[in-house]
Amino acid sequence: MEINIATEEQNLKTRVEAALNSIRPYLEADGGNVVVKEVTEDHIAVLELVGACGSCPMSTMTFKAGLEEAILRSVPEIKKVVALNLTPAF
Q1: Sheet holding 80-83, edge to edge
Q2: How many domains are there within the chain?
Q3: What does the mean pLDDT of the chain come to?
């Protein structure tokens, strides 16, 4: 049972990464990127914005309209997407 859960989470993580690959060129063009930290047993994708994205005042919009949308559309098993380090919008 444990192996199946670990395999399922790894499969979901791989699919989340693939979904983010469509957005990565835009993030990289601005000096940033995103890292998938984990996909939990509860099907929550945990992301970390890195580089310029980690301190960008637009990171919340990038997260909601770009990253979260791409993941939820491409990987319907994911129930929620969270980011560890969003910069609060002013």
Answers
A1: 32-39, 44-51, 80-83
A2: 1
A3: 88
CATH of the domain at 26: 3.30.300.130
User: What DSSP state is assigned to residue 20?
Assistant: H
Torsion angle of alpha carbons 81, 84, 50, 90, nearest 10°?
100
CA angle 70, 54, 22 (to 5 degrees): 25
pTM reported for the whole predicted model = 0.85
35 in any annotated domain: yes
Residue 90 lies in a domain: no
Which range of residues forms the domain containing residue 77?
2-83
User: If you search the block for the tokens 């444990």, which residue do you land on?
Assistant: 2
Is residue 38 in some structural domain?
A: yes
Where does 1-90 have alpha helices with state H? 2-21, 24-29, 59-61, 69-74
- Tell me the pLDDT band of 9, cut-offs 50, 70 and 90: confident
